[in-house]
């Protein structure tokens, strides 16, 4: 089991929603001079997708080596085929992750981009319009989907480049010797000088050596918390260890707040609600974000620990899919992220323990049934690892 490998001297910038993320991403693509690696779960056929696609094609036309990985399910079978044809015609290298489930049930849910081995982005934003529902292209949201990404300069970019390079190679058919030589070359070339002060580490989740790395990083931070913990996720259905860690932190006096997305999937909401009684009883504050779709996967613990990335606190992200987060130990970054989370909490609905205790019997039965079905489906999909 791997732990987080932190590197110092990084410069980090928090980007909120597509209004900040996409201009920064497209600008980086437009000034790229050598190489681009981009991974995303969804690459939509909308205005945002067209803008990013055009920037990637412009880069390829300048002679930049451009590599794009999209998930076959997240992007869609038809859209994946169209993207592949258009990218290939323009000189952009493209691969779909796990078409027709040839590699099992796992999806790549990672959202990363590395440009010229000197600048990187990581977070929860897909390549899609954040005013359009990501599960129904006909549904316009009342506000932009709420999410974060982090722009990174510094030594951590080397680790991100190695990971995106390795992902590209894994999806190909190169021989082991060629893969190793390319990996060695990447390690030699991916060096960065000092550009900032933040301590940060890349944490990924896969089904090999990194099965529990992201969860373990959060559990360690919760276990060592002294004052507070704020976590936000659109889909809340973690395993027993994570739920117990949240409750235990609250019971020992830590101010624990869960900011959860609701209203997108009825089944998911019911599963999350099945956990409310024990969480509320232990003192965890549960807050529901109802203004628009919440898509952020982030946390701040105490004054200097933070994480942003693609991993939800649910069974799919923690036990099945490929995910990528950045974990940051930096007071300034943690303060900035905490400010965004606290403003969202102030504009959301706090679940009162006494009010939730008064829900009807039928609702309780429905919540229990939803969790029973979810738990058993995930146990099958993860070969019993979800509990």
Automatic annotation (TrEMBL):
Going by the entry's taxonomy, the superkingdom of the source organism is recorded as Bacteria
Which stretch is the leader sequence?
Answer: none
Q: Any idea where the PLD phosphodiesterase domain is?
A: 104-131, 290-317
Pfam families recorded: PLDc_2
The cross-references to InterPro entries, in alphabetical order and at most eight, read: PLD-like_dom (IPR025202), PLipase_D/transphosphatidylase (IPR001736)
| Family annotation (Gene3D superfamilies) | Endonuclease Chain A (3.30.870.10)
Task: Give the protein name, as stated in the record.
Answer: Cardiolipin synthase ClsB
Organism (species): Actimicrobium antarcticum
């Amino acid at each position: 089991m791997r732990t987080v490998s932190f590197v110092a001297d990084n410069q980090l910038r928090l980007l909120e929603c597509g209004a900040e993320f996409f201009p920064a991403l497209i600008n980086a693509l437009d000034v790229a001079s050598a190489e681009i690696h981009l991974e995303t779960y969804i690459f939509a056929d909308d205005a945002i997708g067209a803008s990013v696609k055009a920037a990637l094609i412009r880069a390829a036309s300048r002679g930049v080596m451009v590599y794009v990985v999209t998930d076959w399910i997240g992007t869609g079978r038809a859209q994946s085929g169209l993207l592949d044809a258009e990218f290939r015609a323009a000189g952009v290298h493209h691969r779909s992750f796990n078409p027709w489930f040839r590699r099992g049930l796992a999806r790549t849910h990672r959202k990363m981009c590395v440009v010229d081995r000197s600048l990187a982005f990581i977070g929860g934003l897909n390549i899609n319009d954040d005013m359009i529902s990501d599960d129904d292209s006909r549904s316009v949201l009342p506000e932009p989907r709420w999410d974060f990404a982090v722009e990174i300069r510094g030594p951590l970019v080397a680790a991100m480049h190695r990971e995106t390079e390795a992902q590209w190679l894994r999806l190909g058919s190169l021989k082991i010797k060629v893969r190793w030589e390319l990996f060695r070359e990447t390690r030699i070339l991916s060096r960065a000088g000092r550009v900032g002060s933040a301590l940060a580490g890349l944490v990924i989740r896969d089904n090999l050596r990194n099965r529990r790395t992201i969860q373990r990083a959060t559990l360690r931070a919760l276990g060592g918390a002294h004052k507070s913990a704020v976590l936000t996720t659109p889909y809340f259905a973690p395993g027993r260890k994570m739920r117990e860690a949240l409750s235990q932190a609250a019971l020992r006096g830590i101010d624990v707040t869960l900011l959860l997305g609701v209203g997108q999937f009825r089944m998911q909401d019911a599963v999350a609600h099945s956990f409310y009684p024990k969480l509320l009883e232990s003192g965890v504050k549960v807050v529901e974000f109802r203004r628009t779709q919440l898509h952020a996967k982030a946390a701040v613990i105490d004054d200097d620990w933070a994480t942003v990335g693609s991993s939800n606190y649910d069974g799919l992200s923690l036990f099945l899919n490929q995910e990528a987060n950045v974990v940051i130990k930096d007071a300034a970054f943690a303060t900035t992220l905490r400010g965004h989370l606290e403003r969202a909490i102030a504009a959301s609905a706090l679940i009162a323990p006494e009010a939730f205790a008064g829900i009807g019997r039928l609702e309780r039965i429905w919540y229990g049934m939803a969790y029973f079905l979810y738990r058993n489906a995930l146990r099958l999909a993860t070969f019993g690892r979800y509990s």
